[in-house]
Amino acid sequence: MDEMIEFLHKGPLAPLKKWGTKYSIWPTHLVTACCGVELAHAFASGYDGERLGVLNFGMARQTNCIVVEGAITRKMARALKITYEQMPDPKFVIVMGVCGIKGGLFWNGYNMVKPFEVVPVKYYAPGCPPTPESLLRCFRALQNEIDTGEPRNTIVYPTVREAVEEGKKKKRPKKVPPPPKYVASNPSVVVDVPREDGWPGGKEIVAKLSEVLGELGERITITGRNKVAVRVSRDNFVEAARKLLEAGLDHIKSVNVIDVPHEGKFIVEYVASSYLNPEFTPLLVTMISEIDRNDPVFPSLIDVWPAADYLERELHDLFGVWFEGNPWMGRKFLLAPDTPETPLRKDFKLQDDVYIGGE
Ligand code: SF4
């Protein structure tokens, strides 16, 4: 068998195989987000991507390429990995949109996964959304790579011409970094994953937060550059928030609820930052707590950070968490009055459609 594969790769038929692969790129597209519209655009009559030998398929087992169309969440990461593993070799991954590169609009979302941490990515089409031209450019680059075996950038960036002072050595032009090829064995689905690399001031910030919170901060973890997660119990949450406010974290960026039905809990997150204290300005501090899913009552933080008000109202609508102290509880805020309750809980089921007429 190995000999036959070797023959196919290196024997007299190798150019034919290469030519066949080059013009038989069949992507299974993962329409994970709004970038999918631009993929449709690239293959509609205007750009007609099919003329390049690229034909979108719905079935993973007959395809050799995945186009990840935008954001990948933790839930989707598993589907991405499974789809990739079902595909026959040789296989390639192209990622569309800034959401798939660094999180894009959802850069601080607890649920974002970078596709390159799950599967090896060949080419990125940047933009929000990227243009159909840039997606087609990725396919052309991939075809060139199949042809020549050389990965090449699709764009040649101009290098900055600096004036060379006399007697000084001329600097070499900087190269554009290649895409990362790190593949995680399993997509991570935990909330505060420690990632300390590349943030020299991180440890001092953790020490400072430990000093501010004392025993209220049960665990403080660096989760990325300028990102820290603090575990606080439900009963100590308001007091801990006040201490952070006094220390200079003067506003709230977002409030999230994560439904974990198999463990019978909700995870509640408040992401705080600072406009006025330069020490904390780039920092995002996520306070995390867990509550019982059957009795989802949590203390409101509107007296500490008033901007939490609308976010708590939304989460009350969507998950049914009761923020004690927020006067809006018990009413609908975003949803129409006849909308079913708590539509973002994972066990929420849409009502069956009723068809009228016909057997
Ligand atoms: S990059 Fe823009 S268009 Fe693409 S998924 Fe993200 S938000 Fe949507």
From TrEMBL:
Molecular functions per Gene Ontology: oxidoreductase activity
Keyword 4Fe-4S: no
Protein name: NADH-quinone oxidoreductase subunit NuoB
Gene3D superfamilies for this protein: 3.40.50.12280, NADH:ubiquinone oxidoreductase, 30kDa subunit
EC nos: 1.6.5.11
NCBIfam families with a match to the protein in the record: PRK06411.1
Keywords from the named record: Oxidoreductase
PANTHER family according to UniProt: NADH DEHYDROGENASE, NADH DEHYDROGENASE [UBIQUINONE] IRON-SULFUR PROTEIN 7, MITOCHONDRIAL
Ranges where the NADH:ubiquinone oxidoreductase-like 20kDa subunit domain occurs: 35-141
Keyword presence, Oxidoreductase: yes
Domain NADH:ubiquinone oxidoreductase 30kDa subunit: 230-353
Family annotation (Pfam families): Complex1_30kDa (PF00329), Oxidored_q6 (PF01058)
